[in-house]
Amino acid sequence: MLFAGIDIGSRSAKAVIMRDDTILSSAICDTGPESIKTSYKVIEQALSSAGLSLDDIDYTVATGYGRVLVPFANENISEISCHARGINWYFPSVRTILDMGGQDCKAISCDGNGKVTNFVMNDKCAGGTGRFFEMIAEVLNVPLTEIGNLSLKAKTVTPFNTICAVFAKSEAIAYLKKGTPKSNILAGLHRAVAARSFDLLKRVSLEKDFSITGGIAKNRGMVAKLTEMAGLEPLLCEDPQIIGALGASIFARERFQGGTLENTKVQYGYTDGTGNYFITIDTGKCNGCGKCVQVCPAEVFVLAENANGQPKAMIKETARKQLPLLCPGFQSCNENHEANCHTVCSEEAISHSW
Ligand code: SF4
Ligand code: SF4
Predict the structure, then answer these.
(1) What range defines the domain where residue 13 resides?
(2) Ligand 1 atom closest to Cα of residue 301
(3) CA distance linking residue 340 with residue 153, whole number of Å
């Protein structure tokens, strides 16, 4: 059986093709202005490396911020769940993951089955993300792929008071004008980002076996600073950038075979760098009673049969990207309506997060 996972991130798109539990191929390309075109481009690259076509694939799961826009995906699942599942495939002992993506940074705790037990995200700013490093590389006129290596050559570490993209850029320009070597500036910025990422890790409690995923995990300077700060060597896979797509591909197999996805928290919502809002449904707890469908004034829920023919609550595809507009949040919903999804869900399968 053949499965595909596709991760449409804010800066890059990734795809992984698996035959059962073996990776056949993967591909990475830049995310273009049109997510649908990007999704076809990256999957076709991965399929062509494996000598396959889209028709050969039995089930596809999409993840990443553009996951709702992948027309050929059978299902989409949050990147948090996918990163945990993907890293578990490589390193079952890992319990803490730092996912450093193009537009956000997340610390994730997971159990031995790769199931998410806790997570925190960075603030709603670009500081410490792929976009931040792109901006710094541009300001310093150093290729993005070289900034980490150059930071390791620093004689001293230039202090930075902030990693706010705007202020850090001004500070970097001021240091450049004073003649500070680029390596020292980069070492300072890497240290500042590592410190903030380490704070995120501490918030989910850092376990001994931890890993870094996402494009920034390829930056040796960043990995070195985090290793120093954490006092622990992270476990790194060959290509940490494809871990979300790998997790999606593993979910595709489990979904197709009617397996453990039944116990997955499926997160619906949208994050675009300006903010995020999610409704999460724990499919393991949902008994398919349909009460949330009946009470929700915004009509965002729908019941759908899973692979085993059991009814489960989902968020309508048409509502997913508009959730912040449609749902005022359960507290204000509570004030204005007699019942809401939380009050009627006896299984406590629904949660909201911002
Ligand atoms: S109310 Fe709760 S248990 Fe019932 S369908 Fe909705 S999510 Fe599932
Ligand atoms: S809080 Fe209210 S509007 Fe929002 S999903 Fe629940 S029932 Fe619907």
Answers:
(1) 1-90+241-262
(2) 6
(3) 57
